Amino acid sequence: MNTGVGRLRTGTAALVGITAMLVAAPAAAGAVTATATTSAIAVPAKAQSPDPKLTVAGVTLGRTTVAVSGLNRVAVPVTVKAGYNSDDPLDDGTVLNVFLRRTGGTGAVRTMIAGHLKLTAGTLKNGTWTGTVEVPSTANGTFKVYGVRPGTILDGSDGSMTTETPFDGPSIAVTGLHVPKLGVSVIPRVVPFGQAFQVKAAIYDSVTRKPYGSRILLQVVNDNLCVEYDAGSKYTDRAGILLTSFPAAAADSLVCVRVRGKFFDTLGTGFFVLRPGIVGATPSKTSAKVGTIVPVNGTVAGAPSNCPIFLQRLRGASQWRGVSQDVVRQSGRFTLLAQPPYAGNIIYRAYFPTCSRFQAGVSKSFVIKGI
């Protein structure tokens, strides 16, 4: 099924920790509902090592079970017994962050963070930090504490090379009710090169399949803003729809829709927009002896490297037969090989099948005369 959304790629502002899943939503008029979506947790990639100054003695959660409905979040108390071995006065206000990962269930959220826990008893070197984790309905499953990290920056934007101090902590079971889901449409469905586009995001109740009837904050952003902590949110209308315009230059970067929580996303999707398959091909000769190999050089717009490209020869009035194959290079160029099988005019074309987010396309037909 063709949609206005392409597959996620790695290595280009990729959302960390996202898991692909299908999401269905009522399609907006004149647009196509996205089928390739993801749950998004905006946490940084794993760094090199834990902070050697931090020692964790214990982590407790104020509840072992919690039920959350719709767009609500329930604050669950978190307490950490720890020590931060520093005499630097600048470290006196050190806050701790507790990380929980999914161990069961099917909710969209993969990681939860109890962020910026403050020292409320004892000393920096032997104290108690307290705070909360705001649990959304999209957690829906079982989560277990796996680590603790100091610091106020959680999205890696400070260039920190510190990861969590491992800790085998307690678990919490989350029951999500009337869990929200996202639907995304791109307008136009296939975005021409050099043309601006729009993203229509819709958030709705997965049980009733209706909007919540209130204005909801969404982030619809692209590129590095898909992983940075807070790029600024905008309100949907009361039907749960937000329309966002992007310039033509944004069409080749990751686009994402995020529902922000306090320290982690509660829901999200990331995708690349679809592109047309625009193919050009020119033979190195327009006539050649029968059986002679004639290189056919061409390009595919957008340079979909490693995608296949085929040379086809017309048989009869309308039947195209493949005669050679190549893959598109990083430059977008390719070389196919024609070999006239008989004397006379032979019609060829280059055919590009749908590959990733690039749609199928064909070059103009051309003639090589066998002599």
Radius of gyration: 27 Å
**Roughly how much helix do the residues carry, as a percent range?**
under 10%
Please, what is the average pLDDT?
Answer: 87
Broad shape: elongated
**CA-CA gap between termini:** 44 Å
Strands, count: 29
Structural write-up:
- With about 375 residues, the protein is mainly β.
- About 0% of the residues lie in helices and about 50% in strands.
- The protein contains no helices and 29 strands.
- The chain has strands at about 20, 35-40, 50, 55-60, 65-70, 75-85, 95-105, 110-125, 125-135, 140-150, 160-165, 165, 170-175, 180-185, 195-205, 215-220, 235, 240-245, 255-260, 265-270, 280-285, 285-290, 295-300, 310-315, 320-325, 335-340, 345-350, 360, 365-370.
- Strands 4, 5, 6, 7, 8, 9, 10, 12 and 13 form a nine-stranded mixed sheet that branches. Strands 22, 24, 25, 27, 28 and 29 form a six-stranded mixed sheet that branches. Strands 17-16-19-20 form a four-stranded antiparallel sheet, with no helix packed on it.
- The chain starts with 18 loop residues before the first strand and ends with a strand.
- Residues about 5-45 have low confidence and may be disordered.
SSE order and pairing:
Elements: E1 19-21, E2 37-39, E3 49-50, E4 54-61, E5 65-69, E6 73-84, E7 96-105, E8 111-123, E9 126-136, E10 141-150, E11 162-163, E12 165-166, E13 171-177, E14 180-187, E15 197-205, E16 217-222, E17 234-235, E18 241-246, E19 255-260, E20 265-271, E21 279-283, E22 287-288, E23 294-300, E24 308-315, E25 319-327, E26 333-338, E27 344-352, E28 361-362, E29 366-370
Parallel strand pairs: 3-11, 5-13, 22-29
Antiparallel strand pairs: 1-2, 4-6, 6-9, 7-8, 7-10, 8-9, 10-12, 10-13, 14-15, 15-18, 16-17, 16-19, 19-20, 21-23, 23-26, 24-25, 24-27, 27-28, 27-29
